[in-house]
Automatic annotation (TrEMBL):
This is Class I SAM-dependent methyltransferase. CDD domains: AdoMet_MTases. It comes from Paenibacillus albicereus. Residues 34-143 form the Methyltransferase domain. GO terms for biological process: methylation. The keyword Transferase applies. Keywords: Methyltransferase, Transferase. GO terms for molecular function: methyltransferase activity. The keyword Electron transport does not apply. InterPro entries: Methyltranfer_dom, SAM-dependent_MTases_sf. It comes from the Bacteria. Coiled coil: none annotated.
Amino acid sequence: MEFTGERVIEGEVSADLFHEHISRYKFAARLLAPGSSVLDAGCGTGYGTYELSLNQLQVLGVDISSEAVEYATKRYASSNLRFETQDCSNLELDIKFDAVVSFEVIEHIQDTDGFLASIKPLLKEKGKLIISTPNKKMYSDAIEGYENPYHVREYYLDEYVELLQRHFSYVRIFTQDFMQGICVRDGNELAEVVYLDDAYQKEDSSFFIAICSDDELPPIERDVLFPLSSNNILAEKDRYISVLKQDVQARDSIIAHFKKSEQEQVEWNLALQEDQKRLMEELQFYQQQERHWADTKKLLEEAAELARKETLARDESVYGLRAEIKELYRYIELLKK
């Protein structure tokens, strides 16, 4: 299956992007008791659905893409996991679940109220919806001119909360961010995150994860941190930067090629301009020659006409002289007699 930007594929995306998505499933798994039944609405390629199944949960993953469902079924096989092709905006299931998870899906759906309304009948009495979406303020608003072609609508925090509260009595918001820092810890389980600054504002987080229910939500640990197993996020960043540098070099090479082609085009245009200039000069020369030849022809015609007239006049003069000579000869002859 080819990565198009719409669905994450394990091994085909950067580690940062994959960790960003899988951490939501790890967070959800912590909230559910072993043996719980879970629906993953909009499961994509199934990596997160499989993550839930590793925590002794009975999981069904559904997605509108039959290609994604086929891929997930082949790659993530487990006895407590299955996949079906379903349209999340019109779910058709006759079973109820302890929880429904739907991560980065609601922004792809046109009828969000219909989507949320269709989920409620699928939840057991104390069932929970765990649902996430990107923060519009830190996503498309943060990049001038950017627009995700797969998103129908994105949400600010207040819009997101208002939408969920129309359908659920209890809504609790968690925020998700990709953070870098230094972790000092002993061998015990991490129980709390202490921030190194006081600049945290939930409205400025990258993603919102909401836990929704019509039953009062139980206490939930305040913060959860999912560090990279290597404990070296900088090394991962360096690797990612190296990949980006390679992309930049490839693009620079393409740009250089186009610049070279552009320079060749400029040189070709200059050569054409020189040829055009030379041809115009030749044309002007021949036009001048043509005008000169026309003037010369006119002068020659005038000279010929003048010569013809002079010839006629001379011929008339000669004819007159001949007549006079003839008359003189006749007079001389008379005198001789």
